[in-house]
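Human: Cast an eye over this sequence-structure pair and say how the chain folds.
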Amino acid sequence: MKPDKKDSVATWSAVGMLAFGIAITTAGFIIPPAGEIHDSVLWVLGQALLYSGSIFGITLYTKRKLNEIEETIANRLPKK
């Protein structure tokens, strides 16, 4: 799998998981008893937020570290 495709799949899966978490939480408010959210709904929301946060966090962290490494290598190479 190409790196661009892999990043795209990871990003869209995280966005989909966020949308799922929001949808299930909204449904938890609507389904009787109205206004009360069951613990399982909160657990699923927590898992969705954890997954999405880890995808976005890992992506940002690795890109930042790779940029730092590239900058360090570029600074150590002799100038032409």
In short: The helical segments are 3-30, 39-76.
